[in-house]
Amino acid sequence: MVSRKENVEKYLVEHGIKPSFQRISIMDYLRTHPTHPSVETIYNDLSPRIPTLSKTTVYNTLKLFVEHGAALMLTIDEKTTHFDGDLSSHAHFFCLGCGQIYDIEMDASVRERASESDLFTITETHLYYKGYCRKCCEKSDK
Amino acid sequence: MVSRKENVEKYLVEHGIKPSFQRISIMDYLRTHPTHPSVETIYNDLSPRIPTLSKTTVYNTLKLFVEHGAALMLTIDEKTTHFDGDLSSHAHFFCLGCGQIYDIEMDASVRERASESDLFTITETHLYYKGYCRKCCEKSDK
DNA sequence: CTTTGTGCAAATTCTTTGCACCAAA
DNA sequence: TTTGGTGCAAAGAATTTGCACAAAG
Known about the structure:
The structure is a homodimer.
Chain A (H helix, E strand, L loop, with lengths): L3 H11 L6 H12 L6 H8 L8 H13 L4 E3 L7 E3 L5 E6 L5 E5 L2 H9 L3 E14 H6 L3
Antiparallel strand pairs in A: 1-2, 3-4
Helix pairs in contact in A: 1-2, 2-4, 3-4
Chain A binds a DNA duplex through helix 4.
């Protein structure tokens, strides 16, 4: 029987990240809390269990995760940066009222059904692509 | 013959915004610079022509535009907030190399062609919806 | 040892706020 | 007048940096 933390450790190593205690804790938190937490939330929730934890480490660690493709940074909310440990293809819905971020299937029909059934009232759609433009690809082989 | 500024003025009024000199200037800037400028850029570019302009006014004005649906706030770049005066349905591409934001047609085939022709190397896709969730819709009729 | 990670405090940056002055109706 | 817009300076919040100490190999 392999523990959850051991799986997280393996996951980090697979992404080229040395699995320190803090890193495992933060990734474990991300994976067990698919709520798109912010740095603040992660820090506040882990702090009691890891009293020495600093916010700097949370910042450092999340940045590392994103750089290694082990987590996603969501900029859907202009006020707060959120993080997602779920790398599977899915869209996000940001409630302008309560600030909650919900997962939505990428599949169009599911999305429409969610909208039609009044689960969400969608007022804005943002489709963002990120990557490298031709100029930048030519400069260095990214 | 109607001047460009007069058209901008009409546009603001249509969106329920009182057309002050600063507001007209900033909206005119947005419409003549489809480059998704930041507060900083707008301020720096307009400052020489409007020496009394303050950054606070740029912030206030853009916030007003977004609230009245006269402009879009882009959070594609986690470092800087960008603004778009083009309200037509289109996707955005953010170059992780140079930070440039490009417009992309929403139409899937065009997008794929752009990608295939090596105009862009897309590494991330973010589909963001914003609006109100059921709970928030029930609270107040937004 | 030597390298890497952690965490405190300070610095920096971005954005908002409070308030006084100015302009338009 | 009265209301709303502007802009300065200060405050506030989010994030980064510099550096010293701790941990791991």
